[in-house]
Amino acid sequence: MKKTKIEKLDLYLYEEVLDNGLRVFIVPKDNVNGIYVTLSTKFGSVYTEFKTSSSKKMNKVPLGVAHFLEHKVFEQKDGKDPFTFYSERGCDANANTSNYKTTYLFSGSNGFDECLNYLLDYVQSPYFTDENVEKEKGIIEQEIKMYEDDPFFKMYDGIIYNSFLKHPIKYPIAGSIEDVKSITKEDLYTCYNTFYNPSLMFLVIVGNVDVEETINIIKLNQENKKYDKVDNLKIKTYNEPDEVCKEKEIKKMDIKIPKLGIGYKINCSKFKDNIYDTRIYLNILFDLKLGTTSVLNEKLKQLNLVTSEIDYTLVNTDKHILVIIMAETKDPDKVKKLIEEELKDLTVTEDEIERKKKTRKSGCIYRTDSIYAINNKIVSNIMNYDKVITDDYKKIDEININEMNKIIKNINLNNKTVYIIDKS
């Protein structure tokens, strides 16, 4: 077992790769009562075409299959409900699907051994039938309709859809109702047998645990479970152009105040080796220009143009980062014009960079108080770097104005889409 000190923080990371390829990461914290456990697979909504050495051609599955699979993994042959199992033990359980991963989790302070074993057992015991797959379709259809009635979800999905032409990230994680109706038991097993192999999964445990005992529980649980080896997994890649699919769209909904969304599609393939490193710089840049403490945000509030701060988020593929900006405003055109004017000059100062670096360092300290934040940081690191960054302070110190200026110089904000939801 590998033990690594998390630099400048009173924490240690333990990691081990089991014989079946499952990667285990443990951060013990003796000063808390709770434990937070996540079991993740690198399978998300964008992986709809893939093959292994055992496949003669690409497997193509419907959109939304990763999210559907997340739902069905909770179905157990013995009829037991994992949510009930955990609630009876005073624990919380849940799962989530993103563009690139699916995660199953539980948290609590009671019956850790039993709860950990159960997590591994129910996720690794698929039970899909034609009947239970059909039953789930109605549930997911209602979930999709619920999100379609939410204006901010509608705008967020609309911006992504209008920004990309070829990459499947353009489609909602849950897929459409038509996609859901087309999913079969065979689709689920194809995806499960490929991506739910332990060699493509990782387990993260943070909290008041004994490391040696925990590793032994996991090894004992896994030793009699047999899996075929996944060889030469290939996932379809997409030659996504820099242009957006649609430059502007206006939707009418039953709302009181209009919503404005802008998506800037930035080709980051030549910025840095890892797009996540570029994302760090872009996060700092757009925080300075549009964040809570920015001059623009304060101006918009003083002019009474927005109901709250501008919200922005970054969505990335292997080549592009999409900066999504959203605001609730009675005058979308005016706010859009002010945002565009602000972003004409992306200049930042060294003092501003240093201030944001201090904020990030304080965030590292704050994160050590939360088992959830530590776990989420590890999961994010594995997904973005395929390893855990244990010297975050050093990585923050490496952020510099010269590198920022190189990125700013190469940013092209001409490829954008505007999405407005107006009153019907």
Concise description?
The protein is α+β, with helices and mostly antiparallel strands and 424 residues long. The chain has 15 helices and 15 strands. Strand 2 and strand 3 (23-28) form a beta hairpin.
Give the topology, please:
Layout: E1 2-6, E2 11-17, E3 23-28, E4 35-41, E5 49-51, E6 59-60, H1 65-73, H2 82-88, E7 92-97, E8 102-108, H3 112-123, H4 130-148, H5 151-163, H6 177-182, H7 185-195, E9 201-207, H8 211-222, E10 234-235, E11 248-253, E12 259-267, H9 275-290, H10 295-302, E13 311-316, E14 320-328, H11 332-342, H12 350-367, H13 371-385, H14 392-397, H15 401-410, E15 416-423
Parallel strand pairs: 3-9, 11-15
Antiparallel strand pairs: 1-2, 2-3, 4-8, 4-9, 5-6, 5-10, 7-8, 12-14, 12-15, 13-14
Kindly list the characteristics that best describe this protein.
424 residues, alpha+beta, 21% strand, five-stranded mixed β-sheet, seven-stranded mixed β-sheet, single chain
Characterization of the model:
- There is one protein chain.
- The chain is α+β, with helices and mostly antiparallel strands.
- The protein contains 15 helices and 15 strands.
- It has helices at 65-73, 82-88, 112-123, 130-148, 151-163, 177-182, 185-195, 211-222, 275-290, 295-302, 332-342, 350-367, 371-385, 392-397, 401-410; strands at 2-6, 11-17, 23-28, 35-41, 49-51, 59-60, 92-97, 102-108, 201-207, 234-235, 248-253, 259-267, 311-316, 320-328, 416-423.
- A 7-stranded mixed β-sheet has the order 1-2-3-9-4-8-7, sandwiched between helices.
- Helix 1 (65-73) packs across helix 7 (185-195) and helix 3 (112-123) packs parallel to helix 8 (211-222).
- It is globular.
